[in-house]
C-alpha cells in the first residue's frame, strides 16, 4: 500500500510539472485589444477566450501549441516556449477590424469574405463624401436595392420620406443602431404614394458624421432579430474614435438658385479614465425651400372649379328640388330628363341659361387673369424648408478585465415648413360669377360670403387673390441604449435596455374652417368667425426593449448563441383643437377627432437559439430558430439555415440561405382612424375616412382583425476573386409574403366611403443583386479604383386573390412597380497626391404608375435615367480638407409618358384632346406636371452644388 501511495504521489507531481500557465495579450496592429479571441490548445478541447482588455490565461501541457483564431483574421499558431505570449493580428493576416461583420448572425461575427449572407458595408468616408445632406439620401445613391424619394404632396409625409429595400415597403426593413432595434416613426403614410399604409424608422434622424460604418443585410433576418426584417436589416455602427476630432461646415444650393443649405457638424471623442471612451456628434442644418411647380392648364381649372354645364338638368334645379315648378324628388334620371325637355324654352329656363353662359364667360376670364399673374397657380411643391438639430453619443467603460458598460444615445429635432395646394380665388371664391338676385331660389346664383377678403387680403374684393394653407411639422426622435457585457471562460454575455421614441405635432396656418355649423342663436361658429391658425394634433410612438444575448466559441468549429427579447410599444394619437376637426375641419389637413384619439400599448416576448458549425475552413453552416409571442395577436415561430462553401484556393465562394419570417402589424395600422370630411353621429365613422380594424363598424363590415405577415426567403449567391484586384458577388433572392397587410382603396359602405387595413393577399418578390469591385491600381502618379453594383427585379407582384375588392390598379402599381425595376451604380475613385476625385453614376430603371383617375386603358411610365455625381476632395493641409460635390452633374430630371395597355389605350393616345384630359387628371391640371400627383423615381430638384470644409483637431 505504501508503494502504491508513493507511485500516485510521483505521478501527480510529474503531471503537475508537465503543465504550465501561458498568459498574454491579443491586440490588433493599431494596439487595440481584441476581446473574444479563441485560444485553443491544439489537438484538445482545452480553450479560453481573451477578455475585454485582450488578456488571456490558459493552462496547457508542456510543449503544447496554441491556436489563436478570431473572426476576420487567419488562424495563428505558436509554440509555448515561454510563459508569456503576446499576439498581434495585423491586416495582412486577413481582414481589418473594420471589415468584421456583426449583422446577420447571433454567434461570433465573421469577416465580409466569410459571411454566408449578402451584406453591403459603407464606410464613414464613403458616406461623408457623397455630398448628400441626409443619411437616407446617401443610401439612395450608394445601395442599388435601397430606394427613397420625397413625396409630391408635402404635409405630414414631408417629415419622413418612405424608403425600402428590394421594393418591399418601409415596414419590412429593420433599422438597428449598434445592433439594437431603432424605434419606429409615429408617422403612418396615408398619402397615395409609394409606401402607402406603412411606417418605418427615421433614417434621416441619424447624423452622418456620427457613423463609423453601415452594414446592410439584404436577406430575411426575422429569426435573428424578430419582426420587420423580412426584406433586410440596416445596422448603423457608431464611431468609437477618441482622437482626430473634426468640425465640418457644409453649404449648398440648387442650379435654380433655391434650396440653399447650411450645416455645421462637430464630431469628437475622448478617453474616459484609463479604460473607457466617449464619442459624440452635434449637427445643425437648415435647408431652404426648393420649388418645382408645373404650369396650370386654365381650361382644366375652369372645368373643375368654375364651369356650369348649361345642357344638364342639374344646373337648373332650385334649392327646394323643383325644376320649373315640378318636384323631382324620388324621380330617376329618365323621368327627370322628360321633365327637363318640357321645361326647356320656358322663361325660367331662358333666364337661367343666359346667366349660366354669361357666368361661364366671366368665370373663365377670372381664371385666365389669375393664371396670367401666377402661371403655376401659386402652388409650391418640391423640397420643403427644413431645420434640424441632431445629437449622438457613443461610449463604453471597462469595469474589470471581464466586464464592460456601454451606452449610446441620440436626439433629433426637425421642423418642416411646407404648403398645401394653393386655394385660388376661383377655387375659394368670394364673388359668384353666376350670382343673380332675380332668381332667389336657385343655389347656383347665390351670393358668396366675402369674409375671405378680410382673412387673406386688405378687405377689398379686388385685392383678394386666394390663400395658401401652410403645414408645419415638429418632430422629436430619440433613442438610448445602456448595456453590460461580460466575458468569462469564453462566454460573451450582453444584456441591455433600449428606450426610443418619435413624436410629431402639426400646425396649419393661413387657412379656415369652411363649415356652416351654427351656434344656438343661429350665427356661424366658423366661416367669418373661423380662426386662421389650427393645431390638428399629432402622433407619437415609443418602445422599451430589453435584450439578453449570450454566445461562445466552443471550439474552432462550433459557435453558439442564444438570447431573449422583451419589448413594449406605445402608440398615441393626439387630439386636435376642435376647430381643426369640427364639421369639415380645417381646409387642407383635418385634425384628429377625440373619438379617434387615444393611447394604445402592447408587449411581446421572444427567444432564439443560433448554432454555427465550421466543418472545415471552407464549409460553414449556420442555423437559427426563434419564437415570439405578442400580447395582441398571437405568436410566431421562425427559422433560418444559411451556408457558405469556398474552393479553388478561396477564389470562389458559394453561399445561400433559406428562412421563414414574420412582420407584426404595427400599432399604427391597428388603431389609426382618420377623419376626412364629416362624422356620423354616435358611430365614430368618418365619410371618406380611415376606420380601424377593432371598431364596431369594422365588425359590421366583416373586416377581421389584423394578423402577422409570414414570409419564406430563399437566397443563393456566388462570390469570386478571379484576379488580385477584382472581386464580385451575385445573389439571387426570392421572397414570398403571405397575408400581406395593405391600406385598401376607399369603398362605399353604409358608413360612407371608407378604407381600412387588412391582410389582403400573398405576394412574391424576386431578383438579383450584383456587386463588383476593382481595387485601386496605379494610374500615372495616382491610384484608381472602380465599383459596380446593381439590382434587377424579376418579379414583384400579387400571387393570390385579394381578401376584399379594395385593391385596384392604382394601389397595385404603388405597391409593386413604383420603384425602379432595375438600378445600377457605377463609381470610380482616383487618388492623386492631395486630391481625391470620385465619379458616381446611378441608373434608375423604369417605374410604372396607374394614377387615380387615369383611364384603365393607360398607364404612365417614368423613363430610365442616368444621374451623375462628381466629387473633388482636396487635402489643403494635414488638418483642413475642402470638398466640392456636384450632384446630378448634367441636370437630369424625371420624365414620364403615357403608355397604352391595349388598342383602346392607343385610340386615346391618338386623340390630343383625350391626352390632355388624362394629363390634367393625374397632374392636378398641370400643377404636378413633372412627377404627377403620386410619385416619381428620383429627385426632381436637378443639379445641386455642395461645398464642405472639414477641419481636424
TrEMBL record:
Is rRNA-binding among the key words of this record? Answer: no
Query: What's the main place this protein lives?
Result: membrane
Against SUPFAM superfamilies, the record matches this protein to: Carboxypeptidase regulatory domain-like, Porins
- Write the protein's name: TonB-dependent receptor domain-containing protein
Give the membrane topology: Multi-pass membrane protein
Task: Enumerate the spans annotated as TonB-dependent receptor-like beta-barrel domain.
Answer: 448-889
**Keyword line:** Cell outer membrane, Membrane, Receptor, Signal, TonB box, Transmembrane, Transmembrane beta strand, Transport
Organism placement in taxonomy: Bacteria, Pseudomonadati, Bacteroidota, Flavobacteriia, Flavobacteriales
PANTHER family annotated for this entry?
PTHR47234, SECRETIN_TONB SHORT N-TERMINAL DOMAIN-CONTAINING PROTEIN (PTHR47234:SF3)
Signal peptide residues on this chain, from the entry's feature table: 1-18
Location(s), subcellular: Cell outer membrane
List, for all copies, the residue spans of the domain called TonB-dependent receptor plug.
114-233
Give the similarity note: Belongs to the TonB-dependent receptor family.
